[in-house]
Amino acid sequence: MVATLVERIDRRRVSPAVVTLDRPGPVAYRLATHGVPVRSLGGDGLLRAFLRLAVILRRELFDVVNAYGFKSTFITRFLVKALARRSVFVSGVRGLHVSELERLDSPKARLVLQIERLTSGLVDVYDANSKGAVELLAEAGIDRRRLRYIPNGLDVTRWTPNSDRRPRTTPVVVCVARFVARKRHQDLLRAMAILRDRGVRLRLDLIGDGPTLPDMRRLAGELALQELVRFAGAREPNHVREAMRGADAFCISSRWEGMAGSVMEAMACGLPVVGTRVNGIGELVEHGRTGYLVPPGRPELFAAALERLATDPARAATLGAAGRERIRRDFSVGSMVAAKEQLFMELAAGR
Asked: pLDDT per residue over 72-97, tens digit each?
């Protein structure tokens, strides 16, 4: 999303520069081809990285500094206030929580949120891509006047439906998600076992990698799902796009989400979505209009929703078309870029 933003922002109004904690990678090279300055902080330890960042902030006159990730936003807020007092500091929140911790009710998550609240006075604006993150920060005691909601945007010209999609005897459902605890892939596998036992024909393609993948492979074996579930591993965006264009529906069973990019991509591809009724999915999927929402941790309800799509392909196509229109209308990349540009101009003018 950062790369998309700086590539598309109006350079007559905003001059972007990108700083990465790690050594340059594919995104950095991609930005360089678009004429965006990219500075690497090295990737040889956080202390050296932030010392290099301190030099950059001291030397260059940024109007706005926008950081992402808990470590980056935590350290950068101190550096900006100490070394670049003319700059406005924006803390970007790209999920429900200010960190990427799996369990939001864990002692570590509560400690991180407490640290965030105690140091929030050093943040001029929080830029959150989900309404749930805004509410979490507000409940933690952060002034709502400093909270902005700017959802992610998607280029619907790159994520397009398959015009040749036709009903088939065994519909394909795809899930694109990292294999981590909060994604609850086990609910999808158990839903598939329920559908098999009911005689409903479906195939599930799981795209992604992560620490819980071995456990999910074992569970699939225990449930005898080898012929119904395919573990496709991690895939490049182009391969993900083709997998979605070749599928009939999309599903995701997370316990919580920020702004689910894979759901946006699936909807843009015209797929009906079965997802959990949680933040970041419920903001995108309209129950009964673009897909179906079920409570997390209820594989039997997940199975029922998937069965509705499998047995009514005309209804599934209607839901998918409505989902693509919703992304085009409410979550376009143009809307995101315009909102961020307006935020930067407003903050700079205020200085």
From this structure: 899 999 999 999 989 999 999 987 66
